[in-house]
Amino acid sequence: MAYFKNFPSIYYNFTVKGEDTFFILKDITINFRVLKKALENVTIYDEYDVVDGETPEIVSQKIYGRSDYHWVIMIFNNRVDYLSEWVMTYDRLEQYCKDKYGEEEIYSIHHYEDAEGYTVDETYPSATPISNIDYEVVQNENKRRIKLISKRVLQQLIDEFTALTT
């Protein structure tokens, strides 16, 4: 099932080379709310740790036997942006840090933490400096564990979503 297939279409006005031009676009705003409501009822799920280099399509193929259910994985985990909300490979993460902080600043201090991992002032006893790249590695690792809708209820969810959008 193509995720956008059943979305309603709307006319949208763009100014192109100084002239108003209307395009027919899919209205994605309504359906995110519909799907979110349907997903709130899903109580059967499995946890999964994304392996370095796996994309939502790869995980979907591996778990559900089809890559086109990648959208279910993204939305069930409240993620919509593949670039910023999915686990990055280390090479990509390193480049992201260089772009974000500058090549010279990726190892500069981002913040300080105490022994329990709480952010503290640098004057706090036993404050440990956390570099920009170390901070981003932790943020990236936090994206690794995802929830996957059980295969037993996946088709029911897709059928309900399709019924709500047609």
Quick overview of this protein structure:
By secondary structure, the chain is of the alpha+beta class. It has helices at residues 28-40, 56-64, 70-76, 82-85, 90-101, 132-141, 151-165; strands spanning 9-16, 19-26, 45-49, 109-113, 119-120, 128-131, 145-149. Helices cover 42% and strands 22% of the residues.
Kindly describe this structure.
The protein is of the alpha+beta class and 166 residues long. It is built from 7 helices and 7 strands; from the N terminus they run E-E-H-E-H-H-H-H-E-E-E-H-E-H. It has helices spanning 28-40, 56-64, 70-76, 82-85, 90-101, 132-141, 151-165, and strands spanning 9-16, 19-26, 45-49, 109-113, 119-120, 128-131, 145-149. Strands 5-4-6 form a 3-stranded antiparallel sheet. A two-stranded antiparallel sheet has the order 1-2. Strands 3-7 form a two-stranded antiparallel sheet. A hairpin with a 2-residue loop joins strand 1 (9-16) and strand 2 (19-26). Helix 1 runs antiparallel to helix 7, helix 2 packs across helix 3 and helix 5 crosses helix 6. The longest helix has 15 residues, at 151-165. It is extended. The model has no long low-confidence stretch (mean pLDDT 85).
